[in-house]
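Weekly structure sync, notes
Attendees: PL (lead), two postdocs, one rotation student
Agenda item 3: pending single-chain targets
PL asked that the sequence for the first pending target be pasted directly into the notes so everyone works from the same version. It is reproduced below exactly as submitted, 394 residues in total.
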Amino acid sequence: MSLTLTLATLRRLALATLAAASMAALAASQEVNLDQLLSQAVERHQAGDLEGAAALYERILREAPNAALVRSNLGAVYARLGRNDEAIAQYRQALAREDDAAIRYNLAIALQRAGRIPEALAEGTRVVAATPGNRDAILLLADCHSQMGEFEKVADLLRPLAAQHPEDKAVAHLLGTALIGLGRTADAEAVLNPLFREDTPEAHVLLATLHAQRQDWARARQEAELARKANPALPLASFLYGLGLMNDVNDWAGAEAAFRKELEVNPTHFETNLLLGNLLRTNGNYEEALRYIQRAAKLRGDDLDVKYSLGTVYVSLGRMEEARPLLGAVVAAFPDHIQSHTQLAILFARLGLAAESQREREIVARLQKASETNGFQNVRESLSGVLGQPAPKK
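Predicted structure, written out during the meeting:
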C-alpha cells in the first residue's frame, strides 16, 4: 500500500475539495494556483525533496483544510522526515474527514515507528476489519503482537497466510520467530527451512534465534556476528550478538555496545530496552537506565521483569512512592522473590516505616536460609548418587 498519492489523484481530490469549499477564495487569489502547487508538491515528494514537498502541502492545506488525502500525503512526508508525532496528527485529522483504510494503515505504521505499539495495534485491527486479507495490514498486526510478546496471536494471524503463500519470506520470518518464542522449535524449523537454505543475513539471524532458544550461546553469537557483518542495520542481529556476548563469554561491556547498536535500528525492541536498562542500572547509571526501562514498560507494562526493574531504579533514584506498587506487584505474584523483598526493605526504611522494613528483612533472611538449605540438600543428593556408583576402573 503506497504512502504517496499519484499526481492525478491529488489533482482530482484537491479540485473536488475546492469545488465544495474554497473555489471562490482561491479564484480571487492571483498568487495561488492550486493545480500547479499540487504538481510541484508531488514532484518534490517523489524526487525526495521532502522539506520542499512539506512546505507546498502545508500551503495547499491552508487554502483547503478539508482535503483529507492531501493531509495524508503531508503525514507521509513528516513520517519520512522522522517527525512521527506530526505525522500522526496529520493522519488523525485526515481520518476525521474521511475514514479511509489506506490512511488508517499509514497511521498505524507511524504509531508503530513511534513506539506506541498498543495504539498501532488498535488502528491495524481496524484496517484488517475493513480490508480482510490485506497482507501488509496483517503483517503489521503480527509484528505489533510480536513486540508485545503475544506470540500465540502472531501464529494465529499468520498460519492462514503461510498456508496460502508458503513462498512469502516475510510471513515465514514472523511466523517462525513467533513459534520460536512459543518454544515450538520443531514447528519453527519446518516453517523456516526454506529460508535457512539461503546464505543471507536474515537466515543467520533466524539461526541465531534458534540457537539462543536452545541456549547454545556460542553458536548464537557466531550466527549473529555473521549477520552483523553482512548487514549491520538488520534488526535483531546486534541484540542476538549482545546476548551471545553476555552468556557465552561474559563480555558485559561488549553486550552494552551491541544493545545500543540494536536500538539505533530497532528502537522499540522490548528485550533490548529492558536488558540495556538493567545493565546500566547494575553499573549505577540510574537516570539513563530509567529511559530504556520506561520504553520497555510502554510495550509490556504488565511484565513482572519490567515492574521489578522499574521499581528497583525508582528506589535507587529515591522515588519511593512510585517504586512501592511495582515491587508489591512482584511479591504478590512471586512471594519468594528475594530481590524484591530486599528492595522493599530498603524502600520502607527510607520512608521511615521501621516495622514494615523489619518484616521485609525477616522475609529475606527466611528465604535465604531456605535457599541455602535447598542447596545443601541438592549437594547431598548429588553426593549420594556419586557414592552409590562403583569406583572408576584404573
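Discussion points:
- The chain is about 80% helix and 0% strand.
- The chain has a mean pLDDT of 87.
Action: rotation student to compare against the earlier draft before next sync.
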